[in-house]
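Repro case for the chain-ordering regression, as requested:
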Amino acid sequence: MMTRRQAAATTLAAAGLAATPATARAPIARPLVIAHRGASGERPEHTLAAYRLAIEQGCDFIEPDLVATKDGHLVVRHENEISGTTDVAARPEFAARKAGKLIDGETVSGWFTEDFTLAELKTLRARERLPALRRGSAAFDGQETVPTYQEVIDLAKTEGERVGRVIGTYPEMKHPTYFAGIGLPLEARLAGLLKANGLDARDAPVFVQCFEVEPLKAFAKLSRARRVMLVARGPSPVDVTTASGLKAIAAFADGVGPEWPLAVPIVDGALGPPTDLVRDAHAVGLAVHPWTVRAENAFLPKALQRGVGPAAHGDVAALLKALYAAGVDGVFTDFPAAAVAARGV
Ligand code: G3P
Ligand code: CA
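-- result from build under test --
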């Protein structure tokens, strides 16, 4: 009879979640579908409704971006300035909280999570970031609150039990250097939450991601959870276009999260042949989880656009299939149903 630990390892392996030694890395037959901010193409991002729908659609992981409140809670928003995704600007009681700040070298004006307690944030209501592109999602404005990371972990567990699948969470530390600078460091808070939830393990269904190198390294000293280095096109703290750059990442991370055209480039408005990124990353034991696949024409290369206008959906299946064919180990998407369908298993 299998022990509970063996049974858990079997379940994780079946879901493609188990840690794999760098030197004996088998190709993953079933790339992970990572619901980026939930099923955020169809519900306001980073809401429990968006995560519930993503799980219903068959995703493996739900992705929360994390920022801190004034009283030190980790809440789920893409940035600490919240006027684009909540109704805070229309709330007279918070008008005086409007501020201008320098965040990671950029001047930002608005309302910031670090100026609100969790109780105050919970009075706000979430709204669609891109209402012109996502009118169907905007119909759900005002129905949901700003969740904490703990609520997202709890949802993954209860919904996972309900649907009979392991649902992982894939938290991203947002602006960690900025938050450390104002006395609200994210790394220890995140590590503490993972530990309190039994997720401080290499084979736990969690990946911690960040665009900054030092916070990922700092997190590595606090937790055994797996880490993913995010990389965008253009100037970046690490170079994923060379084997040596990827080898450097492998010294402190388990995976790399490239902007998807770094894996499958856009050439003359169409998808080109894959770059060497997946091959070189796998050679040093890194998983590859590109971001972010979106269905609207506004986010697709010209050759995949269909119908009329930026909000119409293009041939997102072709992009997903190209990424899977390139050998990626998972994909971040605002449309998990499309990613599950294109995966075919
Ligand atoms: O975390 C992967 C991807 O989400 C990174 O971009 O800006 O959507 O958090 P962003
Ligand atoms: Ca993210």
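Ordering looks correct now. Confidence is low (pLDDT under 50) at residues 1-27.
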